[in-house]
Amino acid sequence: MQQQAAMWWVRLAVVAAMMAGAGAMSGVPTAAAATTVSIEGTRFLVDGQVTYRGAPAEGLLLNSRMVQALFD
After folding, report:
1. 16 and 37 share one domain
2. Tell me: the pLDDT tens digits for 39-48?
3. pLDDT digit string (tens) for 2-52?
4. In b/e form, how buried is each residue of 14-52, taking b as 16+ CB within 10 angstroms?
5. Do 26 and 39 fall into the same domain?
6. Residues 66, 35: one domain?
7. What pLDDT, on the 0 to 100 scale, is given for residue 11?
8. Containing structural domain, residue 67
9. Are residues 40 and 71 in the same domain?
10. How many domains does the chain have?
11. Three-class SS string for 3-60?
């Protein structure tokens, strides 16, 4: 039973990868990214603005490991 579940996830991943590849090769133009991230000294800027201005995390670039939420 556990092996069947694992194979289901593998099949899902393969189908998702194939669909993503088909979309990338479809010839449809995609929008250019407009957001810029830069570093000025020790502070991060997003679109020229310091991140989290006025907060204790000012100038930091926070991240989140959401994949962990799937298994917790």
Report:
1. no
2. 999 999 999 9
3. 777 677 787 878 777 777 766 656 666 667 778 999 999 999 999 999 999
4. eeeeeeeeeeeeeeeeeeeeeeeeeeeeeebeeeeeebb
5. no
6. yes
7. 82
8. 31-72
9. yes
10. 2
11. HHHHHHHHHHHHHHHHHHHHHHCCCCCCCCCCCCEEEECCEEEECCEECCCCCCCCCC
